[in-house]
Every structure is written in C-alpha cells, then in structure tokens.
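<tokenise_the_fold>
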Amino acid sequence: MSLREQAYESFTEQLLTRRISLGQFVSQRELVKLTGMPLGAIREMIPRLEVDGLIRTVPNRGLQIIQVDIELIRNAFQLRLVLEREAVHNFVGIASEEMVEDLRRRHLETREEAQAGVTAELLARAQQMDWDMHDLMIDALGNELISSIYRTNSIKIRLIRNEDTRMLPELVVSVMDEHLRFIDALASRDVEAAEAALAAHLESAKRRAVRI
C-alpha cells in the first residue's frame, strides 16, 4: 500500500477502536501522532476522509471527526440496503451448495454455543461472521467500486454499533436466527424470500442501533 493508504488504514483502525473520539477536533500534527504516519501522508489522506464523510473541515476550528446521529444512522442503513439487495440477487444465483451449507453449519454451531453462554470471544467471533457474510455477498458482484463504497459505509455502521457496548446473549442468537432465515432462502434459490430476510435483518440492526 502507498503511504496514503497506510495512513487511511491506520486512521480507521484508531477510529474503530475509539483512540480517536467521535466529534473530536484534531489537527494534522495530532493525526501524525495518532496514526504514526508522516505529515505528507496525512495531508494526502485528508481529502479522501472528507469525501468518505469520516471527517469535515470546520472553518476556524479545524478537522472534526464524524459524529453518530439519527441522520447518519438512516443514511448508512439505507445505502447498505440498496447495495445488499443488488448483491442478494446475484448471490442467490451463484452461491454453491457447499458454500451455503458451510454458512449454515457455522451459524448453527455459533447459535448452539451462544445458548450455553456468550463470552467476549464468542461475541467478537459472531460479529465477524456477520460482517464476513455480508462482505462475501458484496464482493461476489465483482465490482470494485461497489465494494469500496460498501467498505466505507461499513465503517460508519460499525461506529454506530460501537455506541452500544452491551453484551446481550440473546443478541447473538437472534442475529444467527436472522441469518439462518436468509440462508434457508439462499439454499432454496428463492430470491424474493432472500431479499425479504435480508431487509428484515437490516431493519432489526437499524432498530438496535437507535435502541427502539
């Protein structure tokens, strides 16, 4: 990766791990310290961060980190639904039976494990499974532009979810159940059922994000 790309990766890692606070004002030199990257790379990175909506320039104040609000939640989940609907239509037709059964097996195993008790390790693993399945569908489109837009939006989704740090055992089970309904539709090659299961899953995630 170029230094600019390394700076971007370092910035997003610091953001997702909350070493950079949401809404915080930062200078370029503070970003150098936070990311460990040279000033030139930081200056090249800033326009991309502005385009991606992760920072904004405030006159007479400097650079402000993204803040989570209702508008961000609505926009991020709406974009996610638009992109994933397209991905589902493609994925239903190309996902192999082996892939579908592997997804089912891993989700059932995680669900069973969660019913016995949710540890921090299991919660992290279940969350990664969630992200991985959605990324798999998006990348199966073979469109680098869509994948790039989706990854940037995923950063915002993860920031939204980080606002709620509660570890709820029933959350893992319910997410696995939502995924399993989608996997069942995928196995039967039912596009309408798969799209409906996806929409229900994303609506549930959005409701959890705003704590409805």
